Amino acid sequence: MILDKIEQLLAEIQNLSAGSSEEIEALRLKYLSKKGEISALMADFRNVPADRKKEVGVKINQLKQTAIERINALKEQFEESENTDESIDLTRTPYPVQLGTRHPLTIVKNEIIDIFSRMGFILADGPEVEDDLHVFTKMNFAADHPARDMQDTFFVEQSADDVTKNILLRSHTSSVQARVMETTQPPIRIICPGRVYRNEAITARAHCFFHQVEGLYIDKNVSFTDLKQVLLSFAREMFGPDTKIRLRPSYFPFTEPSAEMDISCHICGGEGCGFCKHTGWVEILGCGMVDPNVLEQCGIDSKIYSGYAFGMGVERITNLKYQVSDLRMFSENDTRFLREFESAD
């Protein structure tokens, strides 16, 4: 009689199933608790004849072991199903997920690229870790120029014998112009956006890294008039159709003649305000005709070809466009600041 009961319970236990942790616990109590089915069998065991106690005892122990193994297996299956349930992923961002926006510098950089692309300029890129040859030497910097000093430039490696072999973080994207000119014959019409580095104290008006967009056009019979018209078209596209420009004489090693370009203040319309320091004008970029020495250094015949170049800081243009008062805000990753540009994206 007791053997029949054992066989019946064994069949039940082998086919056990459960859909929750509560059901598994109920099964454990039913079969393995002190008042469970197996404990009841142990109570009946005393009535088993002596000659059959060994056989029945072995069967009861096997039944108990089977019950323990089956219930443990159900627990493991349930835990695995919980872990693989994609609807309950504790590592996910809580809802609702907030959508981001492009960084203001990216928005303005893309707008600058779009304007010049429509004028026929193509994108050119180069390494941020550069050699002196392309950053300074081919750009007509003298060997003792202050820009080569540690106070102005971040050096990675310095050569004691030849400054052109110094390795540094580029201080302007003019190095991209040099690389394009030494490998490409005119006509050349490129813009070079990218990040640059200068050894400066970090303040509201300056940073040790910033972003530039430089432009270069090399061809036969290129004139300063061509440069002025391109920059006027850019200013009106970026700041509005009523924008005026003026060019002031300046100096750069790589252009001759050189100029700084101002635009009429788009806040006061040129009347004078605190933003433009009551002058009616705001400086935005430097430009000029490519120095013949630069053309020759890069393997271009300066007697046949001429060209112009210009360069602007993306942060500067962004400041003017959106009136951001502190350069440091662009690199602090403060989402409160970045959310202000959602509508501009």
TrEMBL record:
- Key words, A-Z: Aminoacyl-tRNA synthetase, ATP-binding, Cytoplasm, Ligase, Magnesium, Metal-binding, Nucleotide-binding, Protein biosynthesis
This protein's name:
Phenylalanine--tRNA ligase alpha subunit
Q: Is Transmembrane helix set as a keyword in this record?
A: no
- Spell out the InterPro entries in the cross-references: aa-tRNA-synth_II, aa-tRNA-synth_II/BPL/LPL, Phe-tRNA-synth_IIc_asu, Phe-tRNA_ligase_II_N, Phe_tRNA_ligase_alpha1_bac, Phenylalanyl-tRNA_Synthase, tRNA-bd_arm
Instruction: Name the Pfam families on file.
Output: Phe_tRNA-synt_N (PF02912), tRNA-synt_2d (PF01409)
Q: Which domain of life is it from?
A: Bacteria
Q: What is the lineage of its organism?
A: Bacteria, Pseudomonadati, Bacteroidota, Bacteroidia, Bacteroidales
Q: How does it assemble?
A: Tetramer of two alpha and two beta subunits.
Q: What is its EC number?
A: 6.1.1.20
Note on how the cofactor is bound: Binds 2 magnesium ions per tetramer.
Q: Where does it live in the cell?
A: Cytoplasm
Task: Say if the entry is tagged with keyword Transit peptide.
Answer: no
The coenzyme or cofactor needed here is:
Mg(2+)
Enumerate the spans annotated as Aminoacyl-transfer RNA synthetases class-II family profile domain: 108-340
